[in-house]
Specification:
Phosphatase 2c, domain 1, alpha+beta, 9 helices, 5-stranded antiparallel β-sheet, PPM-type_phosphatase-like_dom, PPM-type phosphatase domain-containing protein
Length: about 280
């Protein structure tokens, strides 16, 4: 496997709540769900601690366990919950959470799992368009509640209050039927992940993206998924993040692209030579 990646916090000096790690046979990415200022989460460790601790647990287990990716994720969620159950309120609706993308080569198969709105893009031989895997249930639920937030200038006190209220409202739908699912404290969330496997010889390349990196395509619509793969191949993940930042800076108030956060943590990984190096 040949892997290149880049990751960058939304703002310099701020903790990066994304996590990316890889071994010879596995890649894992998590995107921690940020908590706006003044909104409680019931955990004194914070979102970055959660995403980094769960991510480290998963990448270790993926190389040591013969279980399915779903089983590994469920065990990882349970393990991390146990690490702070005695010191934090895990019943709090805002307990730290994260999206998850997992890739693993097992024999001649490439296994994958996607939970929530981080994105996996597979460049499959013989297919003119990439295969894009992302769980958009959070976006579907959020569309009901973001009208006020999206109507206000980004960065304004009014927008900040509306964003905090939006986050509080979305928590009522998190890890519930007819809502959306993320990794947090309930291992059964792993059952809601999308997962599958494909012969490794059929995959030319794979991109693993937090939504802070995928927004170049799925929010800003400044590129197609094929163009994103071509950019990663020619210029690397750092250039992808640079282009996201250029777009964000050009629309700080969110008038062209309404959004909760002007800038977001961004992580992109590009995997090639899957058959040769895995």
């Amino acid at each position: 496997m040949r892997l290149t990646f880049a990751t960058e916090p939304a703002y310099l000096g701020r903790l990066n709540e994304d996590f990316i790690a890889a071994t010879q046979d596995a890649v894992v990415l998590l995107d921690g769900a940020g908590t706006p200022p003044g909104v409680e989460c019931g955990c004194h460790h914070g979102v970055a601690w959660y995403s980094h601790t769960l991510g480290s647990t998963l990448v270790t287990s993926m190389t040591q366990s013969a279980g399915t990716l779903g089983e590994i994720l469920a065990d990882g969620i349970k393990t991390v919950a146990g690490l702070h159950a005695s010191s934090c309120d895990l019943t709090h609706a805002g307990s730290p959470s994260a999206t998850v993308v997992m890739l693993r080569r097992t024999g001649e198969m490439l296994e994958w799992l996607v939970l929530a709105d981080s994105v996996l893009v597979l460049d499959v031989a013989g297919s003119p368009e990439p295969v894009v895997i992302c769980d958009d249930r959070e976006a579907q639920v959020g569309a009901r509640y973001r009208t006020l937030m999206d109507s206000l200038p980004g960065g304004s006190p009014e927008h900040q209050r509306a964003h905090a209220q939006y986050v509080e409202t979305m928590r009522r739908h998190r890890n519930r039927e007819d809502g959306f699912w993320v990794a947090s404290v309930d291992p059964s969330a792993a059952d809601q992940a999308q997962s599958g496997a494909i012969p490794v010889g059929e995959v030319r390349a794979a991109a693993v993206l937090s939504d802070g990196a995928s927004r170049l395509v799925d929010r800003f619509e400044l590129a197609t998924w094929r163009q994103l793969l071509d950019l990663l191949d020619s210029s690397g993940p750092g250039e992808l993040i640079d282009r996201v930042r250029q777009a964000e800076r050009s629309d700080l108030e969110g008038r062209r692209w309404p959004r909760g956060k002007a800038f977001d943590d961004a992580t992109a990984a590009y995997v090639t030579a899957l058959g040769d190096g895995w």
